[in-house]
Design a protein that fits this description.
- The chain has 44 residues and is an all-alpha fold.
- 75% of the residues lie in helices and 0% in strands.
- The radius of gyration is 18 Å and the shape is rod-shaped.
- The termini are far apart.
Length: 44
């Protein structure tokens, strides 16, 4: 494998992990906004 191939694979992996992380945090924020109306028990 060339260095360029490894670099491309690493960039793809990092981009995928970042996208997954952003998606998870976005869904968590949405669920917290939904729940905060009728459940005030959870406090950060």
């Amino acid at each position: 494998m060339d260095i360029t191939e490894i670099e491309i694979l690493l960039r793809l992996l990092i981009a995928h992990l970042l996208a997954d992380f952003l998606f998870q945090t976005n869904s968590m924020i949405r669920s917290k906004r939904r729940n905060c109306k009728w459940s005030v028990k959870e406090k950060d």
